[in-house]
Amino acid sequence: MSTATTRTSPPIGTLLMRGLFDENPVFRLALSLCPAVAVTTTVKNGVMLGVAVFVVQVLSSVSASLLRPVIIPKIRVPLFVIIIAIWVSVMDMVLAAFYPDIYAEVGLYVKLIVAFAIIISRMELFAMKHPPMPAFWDGFGMGLGFLVAMILTGALRELLGSGSVFGIQIVDFNPLLLVILPAGGFFTIGLIMALFNWVDVKRGIAVKDDYKGCHG
Amino acid sequence: MSTPQAAINTAPPSAREMAQIAIGLTVVCLIASIILGGFYLWTEPAKEHNVAAREQLLIRQLLGLSDRAEVGEVRRYLLWRGTNLEVFYLGESRLVQLDAIGNVIATRDVPPETAAEGDVDAWVASVAEPGEEQELRYVGRFFTGIEGGEAAGFVIEGKSIGFKTWIRFFLAVDAEFNLLGIEIIEHEEDPGLGDQITKPYFKHQFTGRSFDDIATIEVTKDPLPNEWRAALEALGETELDDWLQQNADNLAVHPDIHAITGATISSVAVADGVKRALRNFRKRMDLVEDHL
Q1: For chain B, which residues make up each domain, given as ranges?
Q2: B chain contacts of residue A111, beta-carbon cutoff 8 Å
Q3: Which of A60, A86, A118, B218 is deepest in the core (most CB within 10 A)?
Q4: Is the pLDDT of residue A148 over 90?
């Protein structure tokens, strides 16, 4: 879809790749690590949170982009929070009322999302500067990137911490309890971050200074 | 920041601008509350219906009731009359009024039309005649499972403060106050840690304990032995009576509740809640059983 835009928007492929790899919210931007670490003790939990974030990210990005003309710049941040809160509450209420079975599984995760840094940062950095279609694909890519990150982290932690994946026992050994505990979550995410940087080095891309270490 | 640019940015906004911000935020919040209020009104009846249906199903499962069995509800209210506390119990057909130490002040029959559909809380409030500044407060309820005209057991609704907020749970007991099982109804414990309280290996640790067992039950941080965990997880697939027979030894060897790894607070919250709910329930039943 090519529309006359104020700014040229990157193609869909670039947007998706950015969310999945180049600017992966968890492994590159290191955003929303707190809920990510708390939840990824199993793949199933990771998938639930990932899907919930994905849906809210897409809806919020598109909403912000659509409301762009009427948003007063000075109050955009509180507005973003309100937009996210509306979508999260609406999802929560609709699921609880009409899909009680799904709600029993994902209800807890949906409520966590209001405070997600990644959603608000995509609204500020991208959706506010681009029309709805690119904003949709940016949200789509970032949400997908977060979902993939949750699956990767969850799978690794569940495998090492309880010897299973999706609750199915795969290997029988004394599980590494540390991996299930919050500290182990940070270790796991750190290791995958290192893997991402290693892939970059192999591809012959200089690793950005930002990704090299922890800076408060 | 000493650049002129920064100095301009930190200057207080003009009155016009501030008005624009204030009005903008007010309008946005108004719109947001209208949207949320609308969705609430639209979804709330369906949600309440779901919750009630799920509760009925759980009560029947916990007590092992057949389809023909009936479930009665008893609601409990408190009222301060001056400095005197009064307690009301509303059964399916009778209202019992007690003073603070448990003497029956009065009993009344519930009018059939109120019992059939009307707002029972409003009826109790009208009968109780609270004074000017007093208010009748609903404080809890329990359910009676009636199978073939006899009480097959009770389900007590209890709550306990968890890691973040209330954990609501159901506690099923037979007529001798032996615990038939617990079920977590509502909680907001952390996914992956505290939310394990809903898992069979945790909640089934309470099943099959007598009133005295529960009164002295404690939470231990020792790891849950593998074979005991396997037995607890098998309870869902076995009939309760068979399971109790097979696991009589296990129950005796494991008198304590094994805490969930990384979620001791949630585990203790449930154990304490169960303990308290059962103790209070027995005390209350002794007072009102014959009058309801």
Answers
A1: 69-141, 149-292
A2: 188
A3: A60
A4: yes
A123 Cβ neighbours under 8 A, 6+ residues apart:
A60, A61, A64, A80, A83, A84
> What does the block give as tokens for B177?
């106050």
SS3 B154: strand
Cβ within 8 Å, pair A93-B192 = no
- Measured between beta carbons, the chain B residues lying within 8 angstroms of A75 are 21, 24-25, 28
Whether ipTM tops 0.95, in short, is no
B105-127 tens-digit pLDDT: 888 888 888 777 778 888 888 88
* Cross-chain Cβ contact B190/A181 below 8 Å: no
Strands B70-81 and B94-99: unpaired
Cβ-based contacts of A39 with chain B (< 8 Å): 191-192
Note the pLDDT of residue B29: 92
Regarding predicted confidence, which is higher, B166 or B192? B166
The verdict on a CB contact (< 8 Å) between B21 and A86 is: no
Angle between helix B15-63 and A76-98 (nearest 10)? 20
pLDDT at B143: 93
Contact B39 A89 (CB under 8 A): yes
A89 touches chain B (CB under 8 A): yes
What residues of chain B lie within 8 A of the CB of A182, using their CB?
262
Write the single-letter amino acid at B59: I
CA distance B228 to B212: 22
B36:A75 CB<8 A: no
Per residue in B52-67, pLDDT tens? 888 889 999 888 888 8
